[in-house]
């Protein structure tokens, strides 16, 4: 097989999608070749932007036949390097941003058929237009795409009520490495006809196939929403409040996010318009949201819940949002937390999960571990207590050299992941494996599970055409 030059690759791709949609100039490709945290920068023979499933199929067929490598990319918001090409300059960056059509909305069946390049925000807005809810919610929802959400099995702030991204899908359309198209856009909630193959591709980070469209589940749009920002003395109090909320609010509990005091301080300090949410400072904060199909009565549930929490001395203070602006202000504290960390210097990040009941014990163990490893390091734990997902970020010591601090990333990861293992947790809760955790995966994954994953890869992509070097 004669190896194609980058110029020949671009010419072949242009024959499929048109010259306009093949980028080769460094300035045009730059935005696609670096990820949000700027930890990985790659190179590519070209960036190709197909406009249909058939064009994706033709691209992959050509690549597979000629020994080319293809890196799929959605909104380029991934945090583990899974969407970034390597430095060889020979891989093809396949951007799915032009696959941006909502093909169908069926409110009676509570489903929506969307293409992979539709942004999460656009999906949410389309659901609202027919009085429905698509519950997946992420801080990056304005730019992340549904294809990327599914390829990474995104989590977000509503997992406690609706599950991860994979739980919100009834069918997929996927282009395989050889260009064949798996047409499984089923609207059925029940279909017990053999292997449920769609789940193989969700969470595979583009290594087994390229998701081009999906059938998403919709839900009735809530009529009543109550949001509270709550101050607490300990992580154990946060867990106690979660248990109480689940008991008293049941299915109306839609969000239960926790933040450390230092995390709130960062947002108040660096975010324009942010201010202290409660009169006094507290060690921990919880953003708790209830949502109901009833237009009345939910405020009574919230007040009863908080009353019981005060009576049991679980909480120290609380404020219930009295307006949409106040609700947005509460949410901004949580959604801006990760972004505002950059103003405190380098941040070594962990996306881990432990059993919900073990969250306080994990925090009690992990915080002293990092403080002992790097004196002056400032832990910023926050996340989704309702499903045990902790974003255990650690800001550098004040005045430390940023690059020297970030150079200790793997060392600190190892110490935190050792605590995760103690509680039988996961080193990746919702961000995926990509490049960042590829070498760690065999250390924590069951060997038989690893072998099954390799067999999947060999069976579906025997030439290693799709996203080589990621996950495995």
What descriptors fit this protein?
Uridine Diphospho-n-acetylenolpyruvylglucosamine Reductase, domain 2, Alpha-Beta Plaits, 4 domains, globular, alpha+beta
Q: Secondary-structure map with pairings?
A:
Layout: H1 6-17, E1 22-23, H2 26-29, E2 46-48, H3 53-65, E3 70-73, E4 92-95, E5 102-106, E6 111-115, H4 120-129, E7 132-133, H5 146-151, H6 159-162, E8 169-175, E9 181-184, H7 198-201, E10 210-217, E11 219-220, E12 224-232, H8 235-249, E13 253-260, H9 261-270, E14 284-292, H10 298-311, E15 317-320, H11 324-335, H12 337-340, E16 347-348, E17 351-353, H13 359-373, E18 378-384, E19 389-395, H14 402-406, H15 409-422, H16 441-444, H17 447-460
Parallel strand pairs: 2-4, 3-4
Antiparallel strand pairs: 1-2, 5-6, 6-10, 7-11, 8-9, 8-10, 12-14, 12-15, 13-14, 13-18, 16-19, 17-19, 18-19
CATH topology of the largest domain: Uridine Diphospho-n-acetylenolpyruvylglucosamine Reductase, domain 3
Mean pLDDT over all positions: 96
Number of helices: 17
The count of β-strands is 19
Global geometry: globular
Tally of domains: 4
Low-confidence stretches: none
Structural class: alpha+beta
Distance between the termini: 26 Å
Largest sheet: 8 strands, antiparallel
- CATH hierarchy class name of the largest domain: Alpha Beta
Kindly state the percentage of residues in helix: 25-40%
Tell me what the structure shows.
This protein is an alpha+beta fold and 472 residues long. Helix content is 34%, strand content 20%. The strands form four sheets. Strands 12, 13, 14, 15, 16, 17, 18 and 19 form an eight-stranded antiparallel beta sheet that branches. Strand 5 and strand 6 form a beta hairpin.
């Amino acid at each position: 097989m004669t190896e194609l030059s980058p110029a020949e690759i671009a010419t072949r791709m242009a024959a499929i999608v048109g010259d306009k949609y093949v980028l080769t100039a460094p300035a045009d490709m730059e935005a696609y070749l670096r990820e949000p945290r700027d930890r990985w920068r790659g190179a590519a023979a070209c960036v190709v932007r197909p406009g249909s499933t058939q064009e994706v199929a033709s691209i992959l067929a050509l690549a597979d036949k000629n020994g080319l490598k293809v890196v799929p990319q959605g909104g380029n918001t991934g945090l583990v390097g899974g969407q970034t090409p390597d430095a060889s300059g020979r891989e093809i960056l396949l951007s799915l941003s032009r696959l941006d059509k909502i093909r169908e909305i069926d409110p009676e069946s509570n489903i929506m058929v969307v293409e992979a390049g539709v942004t999460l925000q656009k999906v949410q807005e389309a659901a609202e237009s027919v009085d429905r809810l698509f519950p997946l919610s992420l801080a990056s929802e304005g730019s992340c795409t549904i294809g990327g959400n599914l390829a990474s099995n995104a989590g977000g702030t509503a997992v406690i009520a609706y599950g991860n991204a994979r739980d919100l899908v009834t069918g997929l359309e996927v282009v395989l490495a050889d260009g064949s198209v798996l047409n499984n856009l089923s609207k059925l909630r029940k279909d017990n006809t053999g292997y449920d193959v769609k789940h193989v591709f969700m969470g595979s980070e583009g290594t087994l196939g390229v998701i081009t469209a999906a059938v998403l589940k919709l839900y009735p749009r809530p009529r009543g929403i109550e949001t509270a920002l709550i101050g607490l003395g300990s992580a154990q109090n946060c867990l106690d409040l979660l248990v109480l909320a689940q008991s008293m609010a049941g299915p109306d509990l839609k969000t239960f996010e926790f933040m450390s005091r230092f995390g709130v301080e960062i947002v108040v300090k660096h975010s324009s318009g942010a201010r202290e949410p409660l009169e006094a400072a507290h060690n921990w904060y919880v953003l708790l949201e209830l949502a109901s199909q009833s237009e009345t009565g939910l405020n009574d549930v919230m007040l009863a819940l908080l009353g019981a929490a005060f009576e049991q001395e679980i909480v120290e203070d609380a404020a219930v949002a009295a307006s949409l602006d106040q609700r947005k202000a509460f949410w901004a504290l949580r959604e801006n937390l990760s972004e505002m960390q950059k103003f405190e210097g380098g941040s070594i990040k962990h996306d881990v999960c432990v059993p919900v009941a073990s969250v306080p014990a994990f925090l009690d163990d992990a915080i002293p571990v990092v403080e002992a490893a790097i004196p002056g390091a400032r832990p910023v734990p926050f996340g989704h207590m309702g499903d045990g997902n902790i974003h255990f970020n650690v800001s550098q010591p004040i005045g430390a050299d940023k690059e020297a601090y970030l150079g200790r990333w793997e060392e600190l990861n190892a110490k935190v992941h050792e605590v995760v293992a103690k509680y039988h947790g996961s080193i990746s809760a919702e961000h995926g494996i990509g490049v960042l955790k590829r070498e760690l995966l065999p250390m924590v994954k069951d060997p038989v599970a690893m072998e099954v994953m390799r067999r999947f890869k060999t069976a579906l992509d025997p030439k290693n055409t799709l996203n080589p070097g990621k996950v495995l």
